[in-house]
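For practice. Any example?
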Amino acid sequence: MSCCLAARAIDHVLLERGEVAHTWRTERWDSLRLLTPNWQSRLPGLRYEGDDPDGYRTLPEVVDFIAAYAKAIAAPVRTHTTVTAVHADDSGYRVRTDRGDWHCRTLVLASGACNVARLPAFAARVPASVAMLTAQSYRNPAQVADGGVLVVGASSSGTQIACELQRAGRAVTLAAGEHIRAPRVYRGRDLEWWMDAAGVLDERYDQVDDVARARRVPSLQLAGTPDRSTLDLNALTDIGVRLTGRLAGILDGKAQFAGSLRNMCAMSDLKMGRLLDLIDEWAQRNGLDASVEPPQRLPPTRVEDSPPLGLDLAKGGIRTIIWATGYRPDHSWLQLPVFDRKGMVRHDGGVVCAPGVYLMGMQFLRRRKSALIDGAGDDARELSAHLAAYLDHAARPVEDPSPILLR
């Protein structure tokens, strides 16, 4: 967004509570790699030019990439500046920080969707003898006590953490709710290549029947490993991970699991099949069938005949629970009437329901790829255009009633 605003000669400042790429530096596990290939880290004015386009950046490489981008575009960043409150005033908005106040006519909320780990209410009933971590606070296996580990959540974070801990010698049980299975490589090419080429990632928020549902879809079970291997539930059970259904509650030290594991896995396989069918159809329409590998499908997800419906955490040897149950944004500092009944910012494709306020970095904000590095540029181009039009409109004489279009 800073790059796009600068290209329009719009004066602006970026307020960052820590260093550039703060959450990547402080809220990710050590072995994490990007789920998207290097070539897909495309930002306004910058594309990957290294010798490993199909590789996946390590955590330090992601930090360096973002920091280098900020430097390359000369982004006017004020680091170690924490926003404590935002209020409307006569000229726009007053932004209070721990290093003084700012006044602005427009405001972009770019603090992301993953500020606070989302835990179920019954997490408060976990026995004191069981340690708890989240995907946000987990760093490496050395942080986790010897003994059994219950990982809750089977999207990309949960499956990767479960795999790492099982390989480190822990006995891992994975509680799997809704998830989407996906092959890392399909027909000889990275799945992200297919979704990019076929236009899946460019699907717009105003083209789907239920955008609220689309914004809640879990992340694909992908991992950015050097060998480009597929990490799904079958791969986890192959190394000894035990599967259960969704964790539905905890009572008297006993975990209670839903009996829907088989159905969840069947639905996941079905969704994967639909995605691959779409890719096959696109490949055929565009004459790629002869130049890529033939279609193939992974075997169905294996589920034991009678998955456990309960587990006494102490007797079962569970010493640690890791919650990989998603995140929610933290806009507690935003003192504007822009929230819905669930506490989420109301917006239309990133145009917030307050004059001159915009949102960036959320799931399916304007496109299916909005929460990816590769999606930020397109969203920023469109939202910066709207922002520029808003400023232009505000500068016109009062008698000029020209409207600002939302899309």
